[in-house]
Design goal:
alpha+beta; two-stranded antiparallel sheet; 47% helix; globular; DNA-binding
Length: 276
DNA sequence: TCCCAGGCAAGGC
DNA sequence: GCCTTGCATGGG
């Protein structure tokens, strides 16, 4: 695969480990839409349009190609990750099915809010709620709404969040937004040991072990985490035995897969969810 | 209709 | 500490 960065776009040719559908529809981000053959991706205050030029050729139109080169994790060699995971035979179907998956490097603040909303929720509804929150509290630009800053979300009430359709998670959001605005520093978690960073995140309302792991993986660059949701729990029980405690599943999976845990989990999630 | 969704908080033990 | 229960709301 080759990635070429120009002033206004990125060109991906021979895209063996880049598939927009797989990346976007593997439940790691919620602000995208499919529009006559292209994907529109929104993150923070940025927008990108992924144009399909052929079977394995894409052009990503955007104002900051450097930003999206990092966002799409183009500085990581996924062929190596896939070959390492291929050592685990049970992984082969999932790797084959989702070869084009990548872990997006997302803004941590946005990731935190989105994954608080994700708890015990479904992806279609999460997308709607996030969109409503952006439309109500974000900044309108020439390409739609930005994700609101902590200051912008600071004025949102429980009623506002309920109106956005987040249900009982509304009060969690209000509390966590307050904590962030009162100085809880998400960026310092980036260089902290993973377990310590997780312990800090769990102090926030609406953040338990699973949401924390998603924030660590998608927003803070910690790969040694294995978020266990309902789908991954099913996979675990199929391959590793009748465990019920998801925390314990996650712990054992991290022991087995180490720094490959995050991406391993992503392949399995996508494979399981797309195949009932 | 009824079950489920990228789980968490609170209460009981 | 671990286990159980209640939870808003809409998708399929």
């Amino acid at each position: 695969m080759k990635v070429e960065i120009t002033q206004n776009y990125l060109d991906i040719s021979d895209a063996t480990t880049f598939d927009p559908k797989q990346i976007l529809e593997s439940g790691q981000m919620f602000r995208f839409r499919h529009e006559n053959g292209s994907y529109i991706v929104k993150t923070g205050d940025q927008t990108a349009k992924i144009e399909c030029l052929g079977a394995k050729n894409f052009r990503i139109h955007c104002k900051s190609p450097k930003y999206f080169a990092n966002y799409f994790d183009f500085y990581t060699d996924y062929d190596i990750l896939i070959s390492q995971l291929s050592a685990f035979p049970f992984m082969l179907p999932a790797l084959n099915f989702g070869q084009g998956i990548r872990i997006l490097k997302q803004p941590v603040w946005e990731t935190l809010i989105c994954f608080i909303i994700s708890a015990n929720n479904n992806i279609a509804r999460i997308k709607k709620s996030v969109e409503a929150i952006c439309a109500r509290f974000g900044t309108r630009g020439d390409q739609g709404f930005s994700f609101p800053t902590p200051t912008q979300l600071g004025v949102a009430t429980v009623e506002d969040f309920v109106a956005a359709g987040v249900g009982y998670r509304a009060s969690y959001l209000v509390k966590t937004v307050q904590d962030i605005n009162n100085g809880f520093d998400l960026e310092t978690l980036r260089t902290m040991p993973t377990d310590q960073a997780r312990a800090e995140l769990i102090k926030l309302a609406g953040v338990g072990p699973k949401v924390a792991d998603c924030v660590l993986l998608f927003g803070l660059g910690h790969t040694e985490v294995f978020p266990v949701d309902t789908w991954i729990a099913k996979v675990y029980q199929e391959h590793f035995g009748a465990e019920k405690n998801r925390r314990l599943m996650s712990k054992k999976l991290v022991e087995r897969f180490g720094k490959l845990s995050g991406i391993c989990q992503q392949y399995l999630f996508y494979y399981k969810r797309e195949n009932k």
